[in-house]
Every structure is written in structure tokens, then in C-alpha cells.
């Protein structure tokens, strides 16, 4: 009965009916949007991943577009516009639905990324697992977005009869396109696949401490084609991602975040090493950056004019280790200046009388002897 009533409409009555049908579909879509999101808001505290506020926020605007558009497209066969107008509307609805659906899928992927990564905090001390998850998720999300956009673009082209073959070719002739693109941009393709390989094997991760091209920094961002390293002085070093597969580099946090560092000191032979070792332990007990895992004071070399001492200290992260090394170096120097200033590095020279040396010149190497410094006296004959 309703179908016969619609068929009987002619002229302005059919046009008015069509506009009214579109308006009803639009309002029904907005009502459906309000009902669904009211239900999702009520479920926000239940702990479900799809009722998480971050997911709901990501879905909000795409859903406002896609729900009314979906209902209007579903009612398009019942519209009583002129045939050309109706066909044009159907052609408009198809790419709009594809675009809105792609928008919804992209926001869904980004929302899932936000929810998953929020459960792995890279700011904790033992953040190895968190950095693994962040690196893998970031790269895989970028791959999914690229693939999704290519498919959506091909589907939009396939909605038009005259260029449908172009859309089919994008999906069915990926091999030929890949060969042509590979010849034209071999380096870019190599970087792309290097990004996938790094996401799986993970020689580097987000927040890893690395030394690249002689620069100390932290991995700040990993994309499919390049890596951004945040240098200690806030500069950014942008490196092609294939670099990390072809060239050696240092990764200080590949397995664990805690590190051991050294503080090198040069002292005189008369330094009381035992007391200096005890002072090192007192300094570390008061230092906020020491993780109480390792410490030591060792004589690593005995040179012609001085001893080389190495203080080993440990910390939970590379920034903390740097602060701890600077702190220990400063406090040990202050201790030697205050308690044992005579044990700081110095050169010695012996003076002999004219009978032994002939001209009274110092014996031995006195190069670099500070002005005014003399020995304790001439050696007795």
C-alpha cells in the first residue's frame, strides 16, 4: 500500500515528499546517535574497551555524520526526484559513506591506540615492556592507516563507472604498481619495509637511549621512513630508519633501563684510597639518583705522574646516571680539595748541586712545572 502511494505521487508532491523523507532520515540518524552515545556514556565506568571515554570521544564526530548519512542512503530508492537527480544523489551517497566509514575506522584505530598505550606508562623505572608495546603499536598503527587510506581511495574511484577500472587496477594490480614504484623510489620503499622490520624485531624502541653519529639522545618518534632522536641539548636528529639496520649504533637500554657509569679521577700517588672509597659510599648514600645496585672505587692505571681512579655507580635510567656521575665527580673533588689538597695531581722535580749537574739545572723532567713551585730542597751530596 505504501509503495503504491509513493508511486502515485507526481510533481511538487513527489519533490516535497522526497525532501521530507530526507529530513526524517537525517533527524532519525541524530536521534539514533544520541541514543547510542547516551548508552555508551552510561557504560563508561564498566571497564569495557569500547565504552572507554577515549574511544567514545574518537567516535563522536564520525558517528554524527555516518548515522544520518546511512539512513538517507537507505531511503534513497524511495525518493521521487527526477531520475537524473536521484541517480546523482546515489552517486554522492556512495563516496560520502566510504569517506565517513574510513573516518570512523581511522578514529577507531587511533582510539584503540590511546586506550592500549595508556595501560603502559613509559615514565616508570622499569619501562622495558612499556617501550616495546609503544614502539610496536605506533608503527603498526601507521601501517594500518596507510593501507586503509589506499583501500578507501580505490573504493571511491570504483563508485564511478568511467573510472571504475582505475579503482580495480589499484586493488588488483598491486604487483605491477609495486614494481614501478620500486624502480622509481627504491630508497623510500626500502625505508618503508625497514620500518616494518624494526616494528617486529625492535632494535630500537620509543624512549631508548642511543648514541647515533656521535650524538647522545633518546628515541622520540619512530615512523615508517625515519626516526627522530631527541638530543640532550633539545636538538632533534632525524635519521632514515634504514640507518638502524645497516649501520652500527649504541643502544644503552636495549635490554634493561638501569645502567652503570664511571667517574674518572686523576690523583697523586699519596692519596689514601681507602678513605676516598669510604667517602664515595657516603656520597652515594645521600644521592637521590643512586639505585643501590652497584658501586666501586678502583685504581685502573698507575701513570708516570698520577694515579687513575675509576668510581663505578649505577642508576635506573640514563638521565639519572648522568646526574649521578656529575654529582659524584663534584663531591669527590670537593673532598680532596678540603681534606687532601696535597694529593691533587702535580709534577715533581729534584734540584741537585752544581757539583753533580754542573750548571745547577733541575734533573729529570720538569716540563709543565708551575711557576714558583720548588722541591723540598737540594739532595745532600
Structure report:
The protein is α+β, with helices and mostly antiparallel strands and 381 residues long. The chain has 3 domains: 2-119, no CATH class; 153-255, SH3 type barrels, CATH 2.30.30; 259-343, Alpha-Beta Plaits, CATH 3.30.70. Helix content is 54%, strand content 15%. The protein contains 12 helices and 8 strands. The strands form 2 sheets. It has a 5-stranded antiparallel sheet. The chain has a 3-stranded antiparallel sheet with strand order 6-8-7, covered by helices on one side. β7 and β8 form a beta hairpin. The longest helix has 36 residues, at 83-118. It is elongated, with a radius of gyration of 37 Å. The termini are far apart. The model is unreliable at 1-6 and 364-381 (pLDDT under 50).
Q: What is the 3D form?
A: elongated
Helical stretch tally:
12
**Weakly predicted, low-confidence segments:** 1-6, 364-381
- Proportion in helices: 40-55%
Beta-strand level of the residues, as a percent range?
Answer: 5-15%
Compute the CA-based radius of gyration: 37 Å
Amino acid at each position: 500500500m505504501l509503495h503504491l502511494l509513493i508511486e502515485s505521487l507526481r510533481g511538487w508532491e513527489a519533490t516535497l515528499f522526497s525532501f521530507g523523507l530526507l529530513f526524517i532520515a537525517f533527524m532519525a540518524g541524530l536521534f539514533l546517535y544520541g541514543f547510542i552515545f547516551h548508552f555508551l556514556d552510561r557504560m563508561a565506568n564498566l571497564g569495557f574497551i569500547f565504552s572507554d571515554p577515549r574511544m567514545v570521544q574518537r567516535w563522536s564526530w564520525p558517528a554524527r555524520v555516518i548515522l544520518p548519512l546511512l539512513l538517507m542512503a537507505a531511503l534513497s530508492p524511495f525518493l521521487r526526484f527526477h531520475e537524473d537527480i536521484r541517480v546523482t544523489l546515489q552517486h554522492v551517497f556512495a563516496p560520502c559513506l566510504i569517506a565517513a566509514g574510513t573516518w570512523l575506522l581511522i578514529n577507531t584505530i587511533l582510539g584503540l591506540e590511546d586506550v592500549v598505550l595508556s595501560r603502559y606508562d613509559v615514565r616508570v623505572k622499569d619501562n622495558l615492556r612499556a617501550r616495546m608495546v609503544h614502539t610496536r603499536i605506533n608503527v603498526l598503527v601507521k601501517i594500518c592507516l596507510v593501507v586503509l587510506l589506499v583501500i578507501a581511495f580505490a573504493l571511491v574511484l570504483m563508485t564511478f563507472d568511467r573510472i571504475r577500472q582505475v579503482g580495480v587496477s589499484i586493488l588488483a594490480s598491486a604487483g605491477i604498481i609495486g614494481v614501478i614504484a620500486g624502480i622509481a623510489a627504491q630508497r623510500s620503499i626500502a625505508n618503508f619495509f625497514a620500518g616494518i622490520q624494526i616494528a617486529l624485531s625492535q632494535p630500537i624502541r620509543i624512549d631508548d637511549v642511543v648514541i647515533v653519529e656521535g650524538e647522545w639522545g633518546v628515541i622520540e618518534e619512530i615512523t615508517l621512513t625515519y626516526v627522530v632522536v631527541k638530543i640532550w641539548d633539545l636538538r632533534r636528529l632525524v635519521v632514515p630508519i634504514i640507518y638502524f639496520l645497516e649501520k652500527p649504533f649504541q643502544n644503552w637500554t636495549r635490554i634493561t633501563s638501569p645502567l652503570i657509569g664511571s667517574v674518572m679521577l686523576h690523583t697523586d700517588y699519596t692519596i689514601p684510597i681507602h678513605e676516598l672509597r669510604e667517602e664515595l659510599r657516603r656520597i652515594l648514600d645521600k644521592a637521590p639518583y643512586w639505585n643501590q645496585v652497584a658501586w666501586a672505587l678502583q685504581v685502573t692505571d698507575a701513570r708516570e705522574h698520577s694515579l687513575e681512579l675509576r668510581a663505578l655507580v649505577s642508576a635506573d635510567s640514563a638521565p639519572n646516571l648522568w646526574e649521578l656521575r656529575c654529582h659524584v665527580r663534584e663531591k669527590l673533588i670537593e673532598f680532596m680539595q678540603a681534606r687532601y689538597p696535597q694529593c691533587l695531581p702535580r709534577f715533581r722535580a729534584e734540584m741537585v748541586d752544581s757539583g753533580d749537574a754542573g750548571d745547577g739545572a733541575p734533573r729529570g723532567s720538569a716540563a709543565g712545572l708551575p711557576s714558583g713551585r720548588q722541591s723540598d730542597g737540594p739532595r745532600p751530596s
